[in-house]
């Protein structure tokens, strides 16, 4: 029996990941912050597949609520085997107009929230000597270039990659892998207001979900600290 938790699962990419993981896992914990009805609908869709599902609300920018989320999932299902840190707050603002609050929001939403959940999930995974942690990143996280309108987001996602590899190296002896899946522009996501993109350049939420499912599987036992870029030829 394996249980997965997907944060920010009520819609979009998180929903696609949760539905894909439901094909392999025994059950999926659906996290949400404000979209309760959509989270409940997703849980119903997972149950329709014959799998376990439950919804959990938490503000992951707050350490106590993030740790509490993991604890509630473990209490409800008896374990947590797969954690997908999908929540990622997107701050779009000119770099020279940023306020401290913008930086804090981006860092807490993209880096600290994932760190809080990861740290809370590790004890149970260590005890069972098996775990899969998948952090959802950004396809340009390894490119230390210019990000004039999304600099806090880009910095936070690059930090998340550093955290991913640090945790991967630390947990390799405990049967726990930690990887990142990094999407670029996605069909159905936020696309640029101007300019045209060739259809072949961008992927789908389902493409990201498939990569996450691989990272969460036994097939990826020898892969840790990796960054799988799911972006077609966007920004290649």
Mean pLDDT value? 90
- Total strands: the figure is 7
CATH homologous superfamily identity: NAD(P)-binding Rossmann-like Domain
Strand order of the largest sheet: 3-2-1-4-5-6-7
Number of helices: 6
Q: Please state the CA-atom Rg, rounded to the nearest Å.
A: 17 Å
CATH topology: Rossmann fold
Content-based structural category: alpha/beta
Distance between the termini: 40 Å
The geometry reads as globular
| Percent of residues in β-strands | 15-25%
What share of residues is helical? 40-55%
The overall number of domains is 1
**Spans where pLDDT lies below 50 across 5 or more residues:** 191-195
The first-level CATH class name: Alpha Beta
Task: Explain what the structure shows.
With 236 residues, the chain is of the alpha/beta class. 42% of the residues lie in helices and 16% in strands. The chain contains six helices and seven strands; from the N terminus they run E-H-E-H-E-H-E-H-E-H-E-H-E. The chain has helices spanning 12-21, 36-48, 63-77, 100-128, 151-171, 205-215, and strands at residues 3-6, 27-32, 52-57, 82-85, 131-136, 176-183, 227-230. Strand 6 (176-183), helix 6 and strand 7 form a beta-alpha-beta unit. The longest helix is centred in the middle third of the chain and has 29 residues, at 100-128. It is globular, with a radius of gyration of 17 Å. The termini are far apart.
């Amino acid at each position: 029996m394996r249980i997965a938790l997907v944060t920010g699962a009520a819609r979009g990419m998180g929903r696609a990941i949760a539905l894909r993981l439901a094909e392999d896992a025994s059950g999926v914990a659906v996290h949400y912050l404000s979209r309760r009805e959509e989270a409940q609908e997703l849980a119903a869709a997972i149950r329709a597949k014959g799998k376990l599902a439950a919804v959990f609300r938490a503000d992951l920018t707050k350490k106590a609520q993030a740790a509490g989320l993991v604890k509630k999932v473990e209490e409800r299902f008896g374990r947590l085997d797969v954690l997908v840190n999908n929540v990622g707050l997107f701050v779009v603002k000119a770099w020279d107009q940023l306020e401290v609050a913008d930086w804090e929001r981006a860092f807490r939403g993209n880096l600290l929230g994932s760190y809080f959940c990861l740290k809370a999930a590790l004890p149970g995974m260590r005890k069972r000597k098996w775990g899969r942690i998948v952090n959802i990143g950004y396809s340009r996280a390894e490119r230390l270039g210019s990000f004039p309108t999304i600099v806090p987001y880009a910095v936070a996602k690059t930090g998340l990659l550093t955290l991913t590899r640090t945790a991967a190296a630390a947990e390799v002896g405990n049967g726990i892998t930690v990887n990142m899946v990094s999407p670029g522009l996605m069909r159905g996501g936020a696309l640029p207001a101007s300019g045209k993109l060739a259809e072949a350049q961008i992927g789908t939420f389902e493409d990201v979900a498939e990569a996450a499912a691989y990272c969460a599987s036994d097939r990826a036992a020898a892969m840790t600290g990796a960054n799988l870029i799911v972006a077609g030829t966007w920004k290649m």
